[in-house]
Design a protein that fits this description.
Number of helices: 9
Number of domains: 2
Number of strands: 4
Distance between the termini: 45 Å
Structural class: mainly alpha
Bound molecules: zinc ion
Shape: elongated
Largest sheet: 2 strands, antiparallel
Order of helices and strands: HHEEHEEHHHHHH
């Protein structure tokens, strides 16, 4: 057996054994209360995936920073696919270390994620992530995003039209806590902040805006 095959066999045996349970438990805790898949934010995150696949680098089969918690579908889609650029850097987003909004944009009308367009072409990392982990744009996932987006709009509108905006702030902050997809950070520090209602919130209630930004970016 080659070293790669040995690493695969050892990993499979470890994964099926009770010894892997504490690792899974810690990873789930790190993914927050709802234990969502790091890619599609689905609640069924149950698989420990190797960000750098064993087939690509067997030496990282038991390396803690190489573990990410994903749902079975994202795990299957990603598999051993691991495109890299000419310098060998991965062309797939690692959400545990990178801000996905650097490479992706959110269409707030449809809920779809797409590769960010740079000066002349689409961001290669965003492009290959959307293509390989295609579940991030599955209908149910997109619908979940649309629901969260609608709730944010409603909370901001309520705040803007309220005679007592301080009392309505709680509703907006609650949305951040309920936001399973991390969309608050899109509105707080990416293109979403230019949308009329968020722009108005920033101008009319700067202290509430700052609190929203702080909480959305640390969620
Ligand atoms: Zn997933």
């Amino acid at each position: 057996m080659t070293d790669k095959e040995t690493a695969r066999v050892e990993w499979n045996s470890y994964r099926r054994s009770a010894k892997s349970r504490p690792v899974l438990k810690v990873l789930k805790e790190m993914n927050g209360q709802r234990q969502r898949c790091v890619y599609c934010c689905d609640s069924r995150s149950a698989d420990v995936d190797h960000f750098t696949p064993i087939a690509v680098d067997y030496a990282q089969a038991f390396t803690w920073p190489n573990f990410i918690l994903v749902c079975p579908e994202c795990n299957r889609k990603k598999g051993a696919r691991f495109p890299r650029d000419n310098e060998g850097n991965p062309l797939i987003i690692n959400p545990t270390r990178e801000d996905p909004w650097e490479f992706l944009i959110l269409d707030t009308k449809t809920g779809y994620l797409a590769a960010r367009f740079l000066e002349e072409d689409f961001d290669p990392k965003g492009e290959s992530t959307v293509e390989i982990i295609s579940c991030i744009n599955h209908e149910a996932v997109v619908e979940g995003r649309r629901r969260i987006i609608a709730r944010y709009y409603e909370a901001v509108d309520c705040l803007l039209s309220s005679g007592d905006p301080k009392n309505s702030t709680g509703k907006l902050l609650r949305e951040i806590r309920e936001d399973e997809h991390g969309i608050g950070s899109w509105f707080a520090r990416r293109e979403g902040k230019e949308e009329p209602c968020f722009s108005e919130l920033k101008t009319r209630f700067p202290s509430i805006w700052r609190r929203f930004v702080r909480e959305a970016c640390s969620a």
